[in-house]
Amino acid sequence: MSVITHQRPVRLLSLSFIGAYAVTMRPYLLFVSGVTGIAGLSLAPHIAVETALLLGTVFFLSYGFGQALTDCFQLDTDSLSAPYRPLVRGTVRRDQVMAVSLVGLITSGLVVASYNSVNIPLALVTVVGLTTYTYFKRRWWAGPFYNAAIVAILLLIGYAAGAGAAAGAVEASMALIGAILVAFFGYANFVLTGYYKDISADRATGYNTLPVVAGLHTSTAVSDGFAVFTLVGCAVAVAEAAGNLAVIVFVAAGVMTTIIGQVRLRRVSEATAHRAIAPVVHSYILLMSAVAVANKPMWAAALALFYLGFLVTMRSRPMRQQI
Q1: How buried is residue 29: exposed, middle or buried, by Cβ count under 10 Å (0-12/13-18/19+)?
Q2: Which residues contact 93 (CB under 8 A, 6 or more apart)?
C-alpha cells in the first residue's frame, strides 16, 4: 500500500527546494563518501591544504548527489519504508531531483578530472553505476557488491586526484590494496545490513535482496564475512604505521564498533535494525580515518573533528529507523 502524500511541488532552487533536497541527500551519510575520498587523497605523496579542502568537499557532497539520484528510481519501495522523504511526499519532483543530482555529479567529475584525466572514465563509471543500481538491487547476489564497487572507485578517484595534484604517478601498493578492501567490503556490509530495515517494503515491491530471499540468519553470516575482510583490509592498509597512536585509536574504535554491529545483527528485527546498522557506519568511518591517518599523520586532529561532526549529524536524521 502506497503512503505517498501528494503535494504541490516546490519551485526548483527555491529555499524550500534546497531544504527538501538536503534531506534527500542524507547529510548524516555525506561523511561516508567524504572519508572515502579523503583516504584516497592520503595515499598521494603530498597534498596542499587548499587542494585537500576543495577535493574533500567534492567527495563529501558526492554521496548526497548519488543518493538523491538513486532515490529517483526507488520510489516504490521508499513509499513504504521511508514516507518522510520529500520525493515520496511529492514535495519535489523526480525530474527536478534528477537534474540537480546529475549537475552535481558532473560538476564533481569535472573537478576531479581537472587534477587527473584518469578520473574521466572513473567518474563516468560511477555516474552510470548510480543510475543503474536499482536494477542490481533487485538481485540478491548483486546489490551490495555493485554499490560497493562504486565506492571503491571513489577511493581510486581520490588517490588519482591527489597524485595528479602532486604531479605524481598512480602506483599500486599494499596500502592502496588494503584501502580498497576497506572501501569495498566495509561499504558492502553497510549496504547489506541496510537492507534489514526495509525487508517488508522490498518484498512487497519486488526487491529480492539477500535478507528477503535467504532470511536474516544467512544474511548475518555473509555480513560477518564482509566485516572480517574489512578488518583484514584495514590491517594491510595501516601496517606500516601500526605504532602511530592516532592510528591505534581509530583502529581500536573501528574494531569495537564492528563487533558491536555484528553482535547486534543477531538480535534485531526489521523495526530495530537501525541499532545494528549505525555501528556498521561508525566502523566504516573510523577504519577509513585510520587508513588516512596512517598515510597522513598530520590529518589526525582534522579527522577526529570530522568524526565528531558525523556524531552530531547522525542525531539529527529525520527518521530514527532509517540510516
Answers
A1: buried
A2: 9
Q: How many residues are listed for the chain in this entry?
A: 323
Separation CA 250–CA 38 (nearest Å): 15
Query: What sign for the dihedral angle of Cα 194, 78, 215, 320?
Result: positive
- Return d(Cα 201, Cα 164) in angstroms, integer: 44
Q: How many whole angstroms separate alpha carbon 81 and alpha carbon 217?
A: 22
Taking a C-beta distance cutoff of 8 angstroms, is the pair 71, 87 a contact? yes
| 227-278: pLDDT as tens digits | 999 999 999 999 999 889 999 999 999 999 999 999 999 999 999 999 999 9
**Whole-prediction pTM:** 0.93
Nearest to 189 by CA among 127, 270, 125, 279: 279
Burial class of residue 315, CB neighbours in 10 A (0-12, 13-18, 19+): exposed
Q: How far apart are CA 68 and CA 63, in angstroms?
A: 8
Task: Round to whole Å and give the CA distance between 295 and 222.
Answer: 30
Name 166's Cβ contacts closer than 8 Å, sequence gap at least 6: 44, 45, 46, 47
Sign of CA dihedral 164, 165, 168, 172: negative
Grid coordinates representing 172 are 599500486
